[in-house]
Amino acid sequence: MASPAGVSAPRSAASSSKTETFVDNKRKDDIRMANIAAAQAVANAVRTSLGPKGMDKMISTANGEVIITNDGATILNKMEVLQPAAKFLVELSKSQDVVAGDGTTTVVVIAGALLKQCLSLLSAGIHPTVVSDSLHKASTKAVEVLTAMALPVELTDRDSLVKSASTALNSKVVSQYSTLLAPLAVDSVLSVVDPEKPEIVDLRDIKIVKKLGGTVDDTELVKGLVFDKKVSHASGGLTRVEKAKIGVIQFQISPPKTDIEQSIVVSDYTQMDRILKEERNYILGMIKKIKATGCNVLLIQKSILRDAVTELSLHYLSKAKILVIKDVERDEIEFITKTLNCLPIANIDHFRAEKLGHADLVEEISLGDGGKIVQITGIQDMGRTTSVLVRGSNQLVLDEAERSLHDALCVVRCLVNKRFLIAGGGAPEIELSRQLGAWAKVLQGMEGYCVRSFAEALEVIPYTLAENAGLNPIAIVTELRNRHAQGEINTGINVRKGQITNILEENVVQPLLVSTSAITLATECVRMILKIDDIVTVR
């Protein structure tokens, strides 16, 4: 009896170990595949917008607004993405917009290509964690390779900065105006760089004012302040003031109201006369205090509780020879006070001469059919800010010009933060692919396969650039590989000429930060999607 028991015991242990090792992974694989497929669909949607010859998208919003753009961040931001993993790519594009400002389409296209490679690696039976760790190693190596390729640039080298901004603008709808907008973007950023903190640029110090009318050619940089509104004045009021003393006020020059909703019943005319007389005296008293400080220009913050100024107060202000600009937005106050080097005044009792700003000229300028603007120039002790007046023939062009200018400003900001340039036109991606492919042969085991797949995925950028330009992508990418293997590391696709050239000589350059952040952010996003094996819906 002992021997059968001795024989049967190992069998039961073996059978129990078999049942323990069997795990049904089909559901996990299905969810992973669904996530990858959804994210790839988003990447494919914006892929045709990549590069100077990329297509534009017309976006129609629910409220009837129409947007024409090829900016990846704008397209994805307006898309209604429902699948949770696909939303990662929308967030990925936003992250790239925050970090670098440019390359928002590139980062999504790279993420889509990496996911496609991951799909084949997972199908081959490689564990997602192994793939994820290998991608991390490959992205770290890629950043090292890019940094070794980069060329240092100084802020005094204005030509290089302008070339970089032009490259960013060449893929936009308003690319024909890049010769105007690129130098404008460079001058704007350089004028707000603080010598004490030379590596920090706050783009909030550059105010972009849009005004319908004219063409993008009429866009100009203004050393001072621009308001997209006309002067508020009664008949015969001022529209131009020289040697201006400017007060920024956050209170109202109008009769006070009760804090609670209540009505006052006036029964006879004498009482009504007394109320009107009190109102006049109240307003006159305020204006006399303002005039006593020598103030001759007032910027009045927008009020939601009551009118900032009334017809009566405007009449008295014009009599006192004070120019008024009303309805200044609350979020503009900080920029205005920084520019004018003055303090905002919250109460009439605090209105003093030392809180005023000083400028040589405040005037209302007519822009033909485009309406009027108010311009303040010759500001004394002006803060490190600047204004850009953007013009456009219609609202679509105006909005796209603003988005394009923002991208160009971000590119110059990248160069201030990290002062290195690399070639564009798909050159760094092909070089990365070549060097990572060679590195993969040295690695052992599964890592080598994964790194080789990462290297292949990077070829999607030159492939897509060629495809969107109407060239033969296979022939172009093959020729690029051949040239890079011969040591021509700056050879890329010249989509204007439709051939392969030394892209640095063609002045197609971009900041190092744009490429490095695109690769690191795309890899992070792909690793996150790979690690998800289940979706739990909480209601």
TrEMBL record:
Transmembrane segments: none annotated. It is found in: Cytoplasm. Its main location: cytoplasm. Residues 1-24 are annotated as: Disordered. GO terms for molecular function: ATP binding; ATP hydrolysis activity; ATP-dependent protein folding chaperone; unfolded protein binding. The keyword Chaperone applies. GO terms for cellular component: cytoplasm. Pfam families: Cpn60_TCP1. The keyword Calcium does not apply. CDD domains: TCP1_delta. Keywords: ATP-binding, Chaperone, Cytoplasm, Nucleotide-binding. Belongs to the TCP-1 chaperonin family. Molecular chaperone; assists the folding of proteins upon ATP hydrolysis. Known to play a role, in vitro, in the folding of actin and tubulin. PANTHER family: CHAPERONIN (PTHR11353). This is T-complex protein 1 subunit delta. It comes from Solanum verrucosum. The lineage of its organism: Eukaryota, Viridiplantae, Streptophyta, Embryophyta, Tracheophyta.
